[in-house]
Amino acid sequence: MVDLNTPCMSKAAAPDDSLIDQFLESRGHETATWDQSYNKKQCPKCGGLHDVSATECSVCGWSP
Ligand SMILES: [Zn+2]
Predict the structure, then answer these.
(1) Which end of the chain is more exposed for a tag (fewer CB within 10 A), N or C?
(2) Which carries the bigger pLDDT value, residue 51 or residue 18?
(3) Interval 6-25 mean pLDDT
(4) How far, CA to CA in Å, does 55 sit from each of 3, 5, 30, 52?
(5) Distance 56 CA to ligand 1 centre (A)
(6) Measured in angstroms, how far is the CA atom of residue 19 from the centroid of ligand 1?
(7) Could you tell me the strand order of the sheet in which 40-42 lies?
(8) 3-state secondary structure of 64
């Protein structure tokens, strides 16, 4: 058993990730990507909304 590498560790640090993971898994993606909200991109990390041309989150600095 290697506790340091269990998925629970990262999910515990960022509770919202579990919802994101479920969402991504349901779409067949394993890597993080923008959420879509109407015609906007939504940062999966902080939930900030951005124009579809955005390449990184101007709120928290996240990028796919
Ligand atoms: Zn963000």
Answers:
(1) N
(2) 51
(3) 62
(4) 34, 29, 19, 8
(5) 8
(6) 16
(7) 35-37, 40-42, 49-50
(8) coil
CA of 8 to the centre of ligand 1 (A): 22
pLDDT value, residue 18: 72
Q: Which residue has better confidence, 42 or 26? A: 42
Q: Are 33 and 43 in contact (CB under 8 A)?
A: no
Q: Which two tokens stand for residue 43?
A: 């940062």
**Is 31 within 8 Å of 19 (Cβ atoms)?**
no
Region 18-37: mean pLDDT is 69
Separation of first and last alpha carbons in the chain: 30
Beta-bridged to residue 42, according to DSSP, are 35, 49
Sign of CA dihedral 14, 38, 53, 58: negative
